[in-house]
Amino acid sequence: MTPARRPLVIVAAVAGVATIVAAWLAPAALVDSRLAQITGGGVRLVDTEGTVWRARGNLVAGTARMSVAWRLEAWPLLRRELRFHLVPDASTVGESPRAGIAIVGGRVSFRDVDATFPAALFAAAAGPGAPWVVGGNVRVNAVAMNWAPPSSDGEAHVQWRQARLAAVQSTVSLDLGDVSLPLKADGDRLFGTVSNDGGDLSVRGDFTFGATEGAEVSLLLTPRRADNVDLVQVLSVLGTAEGTGWRIRWKRPIR
Questions:
Q1: Could you read off the pLDDT of 26-63 as tens digits, one per residue?
Q2: What pTM did the predictor assign?
Q3: For the chain, what are the domain ranges?
Q4: Is the dihedral of CA 4, 6, 8, 9 positive or negative?
Q5: Is 12 in a helix, a strand, or coil?
Q6: Alpha carbon of 232 to those of 122, 134, 164, 172, 226: distances in Å?
Q7: Is pLDDT larger for residue 22 or for residue 33?
């Protein structure tokens, strides 16, 4: 190493150590402000313990609440890579989310994902303005998925268990049974076909998420019993009549 380059290397090393120390000391509560910004205040992180480096807390959206714990890797920060793990929370009884997540430039990678969230958290994360409220739990499984337009790849499976849907203006809740969505990432799109098992309705449709267009859902909800008057009234509020069912469309553009 030449004498001229030695000071630059020292400065880089000091900057790298400072970055790690900052992450080590920063309170986990800082994550809440960023999460609130992303979700428009729909999802918050409360009751945090620890630092950004290693911590736990509770995700809250309306009346939905779940515990999360995470661990941040140190050395990837020196390469401007964010790598962290959702880990089991010893203080929580029951299911705890598990996943490895890496953010490198514009690429987001998921590994060994097994997580169950209240459906209300997903709805709140989608932002305000949806004409319905949701209930039930959403389970996400993925061995590997990479979101890196235009070269995304991988697969995941989403299951909305004990799914319920209700119009904001109505007290009648729709029982959708268990809704399945196998997802595939390909190029600059994330997409899948929606179906269900059980419930008061047959659910068929499509989900797409484009790197530039945002998210779009199109569902055809068909009552299993044509004489269910209350159900028909709710569907008429939620969607548009199509054959023996009602079409619901929802779109959320990229902010």
A1: 566 667 777 777 677 778 888 888 887 888 888 888 77
A2: 0.79
A3: 129-255
A4: positive
A5: helix
A6: 26, 18, 15, 11, 8
A7: 33
